[in-house]
Specification:
By secondary structure, the protein is an alpha+beta fold. It has a single domain, classed as TATA-Binding Protein (2-Layer Sandwich). It is built from five helices and six strands. It has a six-stranded antiparallel beta sheet. It is globular.
Length: 135
């Protein structure tokens, strides 16, 4: 079920506990050719650095090497906008998974050569969310 649409990404609510959702998101990303370059546990970081207690929240820095390579060939400084972020978070007892809108992310560069790359990344990320939504 589509949960939220914000102007820079899309979220779905999935019927899995948080920890299972993180594993499922990683598997869905892998199935679409993405690797997870980094995993940032926001809740743990805020607890450690600020003593703040928040619901579980992780950022998965996902990269499709082929798409990243093409994009960097067209726009060498694009590394400032990579990788594609996917988040998994709890919200009032539900689990949300969201993905960046690749079109919005790459529009920042104002480089028309990036449009087909953004379209492919967006399609792959949409399939990730669809796969999680149906699981």
């Amino acid at each position: 079920m589509l949960n939220e649409l914000c102007n820079y990404g899309t979220f779905v609510t999935i019927d899995k506990p948080y920890a299972e959702a993180v594993d499922a998101a990683k598997a869905a990303l892998k199935a679409e050719g993405f690797g997870v370059l980094c995993e940032i546990d926001i809740a743990e970081t805020l607890k450690e650095k600020l003593g703040a207690h928040t619901e579980p929240y992780v950022i998965l820095g996902a990269c499709n090497p082929g798409l990243a390579h093409k994009a960097l060939q067209s726009e060498p400084n694009l590394g400032l906008l990579l990788p594609c972020n996917v988040v998994v978070r709890e919200n009032n007892g539900t689990t949300l998974v969201g993905a960046i809108d690749a079109h919005r992310m790459l529009d920042v560069a104002s480089n028309a050569a990036l449009e087909p790359i953004a379209a492919e990344a967006a399609a792959r990320l949409t399939r990730v969310l669809d796969r999680l939504n149906k699981a």
